[in-house]
Amino acid sequence: MKSLVLAEKPSVAKEIARVLGCTTKQKSYIEGPAYVVTWALGHLVTLAEPEDYDGKYKTWNLEDLPLLPAKMNLKVLKETSHQFRAVSQLFKRNDISELIIATDAGREGELVARWIMELVHWRKPVKRLWISSQTDGAIKEGFKRLKPGKDYEALYASAVCRAEADWIIGLNMTRALTSKYNAQLAAGRVQTPTLSMLMEREQEIADFQSQPYWTVQAGFGSFGALWREQDGHDGRAWKKERAEEVAAKAIEAGSAKVLKLRTVERSEPHPQAYDLTELQRDANRKLGFSAKQTSNVLQKLYEAHKLVTYPRTDSRYLSSDMVATLKGRVESIAVGPYAALARKLLRAPLPVTKRIVDDSKVTDHHAIIPTEQYVNLGALTSDERRLYDLIVRRFIALFYGPYRYDETSVTLEAGGQRFYAKGKTEKDKGWREVYQDSHASQNDDEDDDTDSGASRTNEERQQAQLLPPLAEGQTLPVKSTGVKEQRTLPPARYTEASLLTRMEKHGLGTPATRADIIEKLLSTDTIERTRNSLVPTGKGKQLIELVVEELRSPELTAKWEQELELIAKGKGDPAAFMKGIRQQAQKWIGEVKAETKEYKPHNLSHSSCPECGKRMLEVNGKRGKSLQCPDRECGYRRSTEPILLNKRCPQCHKKMEMHDGKAGKYAQCRRCNVIEMLGDKNGARVNKREQQKLIQQFSDNAPLTNSLADKLKAALEKKSD
C-alpha cells in the first residue's frame, strides 16, 4: 500500500517527490515505491456561484438579494478541472491507504486540501505535513513527524468560515451596490474598512489648515541649540515677533551660561526577526516594493531557492527546538558581504536570548529567517537579492550586542531665554555594525503621521552633533542667532508601509491576505498609487459614502478576525459565527435598498458608446487605459491605447500601430501617417479571434513573410471557403 501526498503547487510536489525517492513521472503525479505525490495547482475547488444554485442569479437584481443559501455548495474550478479529475482518480486507487496533506502550512493551505477531500468523499486516514522551510532536511524531518489530520480540523473550520463570510458579505454587498447604482462598486468584509481608513486620512488632510510658526536657533561655535520657552515646550513660536524678540535678547546678551548638563548611557537592543507584515513594511520603505511584490519575491526565495523559512507568519520569535540549528544557518550565510559579519559570530557560542527565542510567542510558524541551504547569490534576481539581504542582515543582527552610546543634553540661558542641545557619543556599534555597508540603512522609525516632522528633524540633527567638553556654570559666547519660518504639515498620506501598520493594529486581514486586499482596492479603481502614497479615487470616495456605515468600521471586521482565530484554536463556535454573518448581510441589504443617495461617475469621458449612446467611462487597467460603457447590460469596452505591431512602415521602417476604423482594422505609422488595411478588404469588421491572430501574426514572436498582401489574400481565401 502507498501514501498519497497532496502538495499545493507542482514545484513543491516535485521537490517532495525527489526527497521521497519518487521517480516515475506522470502528467499529473509522480510515483515511487511508497508514495504517490500529486498537486492542486492552487485551489481546485471553490464555493459555488449564485447561478449554480439558480440560473436566474446570472442576472444581478436587487430584488433577489440577499443570497443566503441554506448550505454552501462546492464546485470544481473550470480552469483546473483537468487536474481535479486526475487527483480524484488517485484518491480512488485501491493501493492508496492514506492521504498526507502537504499543502501550505496555514489556513488557506488547509482549505485547498480539505475541499478536494470533501468533493471526492475521502474516508481513509489523513496525516498532515507541517513544515516551515522547503529544504531537503526539513522535508525529511517533517515526514518523520507527520501529525494526525484531526489536529487541524479546527483550522479547517476557521478557513471555511472565512471563505463563506467573504462570499456572503462580499457578494451580497457588491451585487447590491452595483445593482442599486448601475455601476461596478465592490465591497467586502476587509477591503471596505481598509478603504474607510484611507478616506478618513484624506478627510483629515482636506480639513487641515496649515499655520506658520517660527523656531529660533543659537550658534555657540562648534554646536547649535534650539530655543524652548520651558521644559517640555516644542520650540515653536506662533508669532514672528516673539521669535525675533528671543533671538535679539540672546545675541544682545553676548554669552550663555550652562544651567544643566546631563550625560546618560543609552542602549538600543537589536531589532527582532521579521514576520511577514514587518518585512513588507521594511521592503516598502527601503526598497520601494509593494506589499504584493514582497510576497511574490519572498515566495520564490522560499519555494524555488529554499533560502528562507515559511513566509506567511505573524510571529517575530523562534521556537526553542530551533536553537540547535542556528549555528548551521549562520554558517550557510557566511558568503559574500555577510562573510565577515557571520564569521565574527562563529568564534563563540551564539547569544540566544528571550528576545530571539520564546515558545509562548510562536504561533503556527516562527519568524522568517534564512535556512541552512547553500547560498548562491549569483543565482538570485535583483529583487530576490535585495529582499534576501534584508532578511539575512536582520537575522545576523539578532546575535550582535546592543547599540550603546552616551547621550548628552545641555540647557543654556542667554538673555533670559533658554536653549537646549543634545549630542551623541558612540561607544559600541553593536548590531548597527551589520548595517554599515548596507544600501538599506537600518531605521525602525514608523512613518511620520504627525505635523511635527520638521521639529523631529531638528531634534535628530541635534543628536547627531558632537558637543565639546562642558561643565555646569560655564559661560559660552553666543556667536549667532537665527529665526526660521516653517509651517505645520497635514497628516501624511498612507504609504503601503504605514497602511500595513494600521491594518495590523486594527486586526484587518492576516499577514497572508493584507497585500491582496491592497491590490484588490487598486484593481477595482477605488484607490490609486501616487508616487509612494495610496490615495482614494473619486470612485472610492463615493463608494465609502454609499456603503453601509457598519461595514466601514475596522472594529467590526477586527472582531470577526478574532472570532476566526478562536475557531482556529478550537475555542470558537463556527455555527454561531456564520449565523451572525448571515444576519448582518440581511440587515445591510435592507439598508442599501432603502438608501436614497445617488452615484455620479467621476471618470466620464467625452466619448459615447457606439452601442447604446451613453457617455463612456475612462478606466485604468493592467493593460493601460480603456473606455467602457457605464451600463452593465451593454458591456461595450475598447482600449484607448493602440497596439504596437511588428509590422514596419514602408517609409521610415518604424513599428506601426493597430487601429479600428469604419472599414475594419488597419496599421498606421504615427510618424509618416502611412495606413495599410489589416482586415477584410471589403470592409468587414475583424472579430476578436481574428484580431488576436493579426496581433500574433505581426508580433515579435512570429516570423514575418515578405508580403502583407500575401497574408491577407490567404486569409480571405480561407474565409471564403
Walk me through what this model shows:
The chain is α+β, with helices and mostly antiparallel strands. The protein folds into 6 domains: 2-145, Rossmann fold; 175-206 and 503-591, Topoisomerase I, domain 2, CATH 1.10.460.10; 212-269 and 403-487, Topoisomerase I, domain 3; 276-397, Topoisomerase I, domain 4, CATH 1.10.290; 603-635, no CATH class; 642-720, no CATH class. The chain has 22 helices and 26 strands. It is globular, with a radius of gyration of 32 Å. The two termini are 58 Å apart.
Short description:
The protein has 721 residues and is α+β, with helices and mostly antiparallel strands.
Strand content: 15-25%
Using the coordinates shown, work out and report the CATH topology of the largest domain.
Answer: Rossmann fold
Mean pLDDT: 89
- Termini Cα gap: 58 Å
Helix content: 25-40%
What structural class results from the helix and strand content?
alpha+beta
Give me the CATH architecture of the largest domain, please: 3-Layer(aba) Sandwich
The count of β-strands is 26
- Largest sheet, described in full? 7 strands, mixed
Order of strands across the main sheet: 2-3-4-1-7-8-9
Tally the structural domains. Answer: 6
Rough shape? globular
CATH class of the largest domain: Alpha Beta
Number of helices: 22
Distinctive features:
721 residues, alpha+beta, Rossmann fold, Topoisomerase I, domain 2, Topoisomerase I, domain 3, 6 domains, seven-stranded mixed beta sheet, seven-stranded antiparallel beta sheet, globular
Helices and strands in order, then pairings?
Elements: E1 2-7, H1 10-19, E2 24-25, E3 29-31, E4 35-39, E5 45-47, H2 50-53, E6 74-76, H3 81-91, E7 96-102, H4 107-120, E8 126-128, H5 136-144, E9 147-148, H6 153-181, H7 191-207, E10 212-219, E11 224-227, H8 240-253, E12 255-268, H9 276-287, H10 291-303, H11 323-332, H12 339-346, H13 382-397, E13 403-414, E14 417-428, H14 453-464, E15 475-477, E16 480-487, H15 496-505, H16 514-523, E17 527-530, E18 533-536, H17 538-546, H18 549-552, H19 554-568, H20 574-594, E19 604-608, E20 615-621, E21 624-628, E22 637-639, E23 643-648, E24 655-661, E25 664-668, E26 675-677, H21 688-697, H22 708-720
Parallel strand pairs: 1-4, 1-7, 7-8
Antiparallel strand pairs: 2-3, 3-4, 5-6, 8-9, 10-11, 10-16, 11-14, 12-13, 12-15, 13-14, 17-18, 19-20, 20-21, 21-22, 23-24, 24-25, 25-26
